[in-house]
Amino acid sequence: MISVEEAIDIVMSHTLEPGKEKIFLDKAIGRVLKEDILADRDFPPFNRVMMDGIAINSQAWEAGRREYYVESMQTAGSPQQTLSETQNCIEVMTGAMLPQNADVVIRYEDVNITGKVANVSVDAVTSFQNVHLKGTDRRVDDILIHKDQKLSPAEIAILATVGKHAVEVVRQLRIAIVSTGDELVDVNDTPSPYQIRRSNTYALQSALQVNGHESKGFHINDEKEVLGVKLREIVEEYDLVILSGGVSKGKKDYVPEILEKLNVRKLFHGVKQRPGKPFWFGVREDGSSSTTIFALPGNPVSTFMCFYTYTLPWLNRCYGIDNREIEASLSEDFEFNPPLTYFLQVKLNLDKGQLLAIPVIGKGSGDLANLLEADAFLQLPSGRSVFKAGESFPVISYRQKI
Ligand SMILES: Nc1nc2c(c(=O)[nH]1)N[C@H]1C(S)=C(S)[C@@H](COP(=O)(O)OP(=O)(O)OC[C@H]3O[C@@H](n4cnc5c(N)ncnc54)[C@H](O)[C@@H]3O)O[C@H]1N2
Ligand code: MOO
Ligand SMILES: [Mg+2]
Predict the structure, then answer these.
(1) Labelling 301: which of 66, 98, 216, 270 has CA 20 to 30 A away?
(2) Ligand 1 atom 24: residue of nearest CA
(3) Distance 277 CA to ligand 1 centre (A)
(4) What confidence tens digit (pLDDT) does each residue in 77-111 have?
């Protein structure tokens, strides 16, 4: 059996290069950009009026003029007008082009308009007040977003404003989630006394979904032949296969044996960790294509922990997304004696800017209800048994709290 550190090294050194594809902007949220995005014009593209009011020429103001004849109105979305007489004004609306020969905008709150005459009630004006000057935010051809950026709503706004209705992003890997087990029935079914509803596929598919990955769910019973046939099809069609169950020592735990028969190269089976000890990992190479297989132990807490500790960081690495390394400090002394890395379930609290991990002890890796009480796993290293309050350890969070 290998250590957690060795397992992470092996997983992370077997990433894929997904390639790229072009997609429409309305489908781009959460995807990773594969091209630099340049400003197609200055930001803003013209001298933009920032307040509803009147536009005047500052020289007229300096010459003492406070009463202005309203020549016309410049609204947003209409071509630039020209102030024909500098002692006059033009009514202007937010978002409009500043009229030619005008360099000051005075807001309506500081103006009294009677008929066609505007009286200004402020004591001072400054050149280009209430004007958002052309090119002051960004210049044409500036790089606005660098490639490899994961797209959030802020990047989507920029892509829209520069007219990118389609963008080049990292191709989505084809992902299959496969649960195994005769005791498992679907969510719509009423289990017999000896059965349970399968939850791992739903947990994994939703964990993928919140991280921007589509996947297809499958279920296969513990029958060698069927497992062999169905897994062959899945392994040949998908880039990533995440299995749950069937990897331990049981008489019907066929998954490792079947995978090896399908020419999946085993990279490890068994990690010195709790939960998740029987975790199996391998790769099937077929000419230019390859399939990566995470066969996770079936106990729901093990499946969950292994996904967040190994599979999600692997996916992030494939997509060029940084894996955040966060630590939290233990709220109380904790003891764990076996020579294994222990992934302690914890609740996270922010305490005076410091992340505090409060142990939430469940009844082992079958106690999936305990996932509700906790937020994360605190990774306590092997080789020691006493962990002191205040000590910091890496934390793997499955909630959006941090
Ligand atoms: N003799 C030994 N027995 C076991 C060992 C061991 O080292 N020696 N390891 C234990 C550990 S640790 C784990 S974890 C489990 C792993 O078992 P498998 O990966 O073979 O998984 P299964 O046997 O198929 O199922 C285990 C458990 O999880 C439930 N399960 C499975 N899939 C789902 C699902 N999709 N949704 C909900 N629950 C699921 C299943 O009903 C079982 O109760 O083995 C220990 N045994
Ligand atoms: O490794 Mo198992 O996940 O402890 O129950
Ligand atoms: Mg088993």
Answers:
(1) 216
(2) 245
(3) 10
(4) 999 999 999 999 999 999 999 999 999 999 999 99
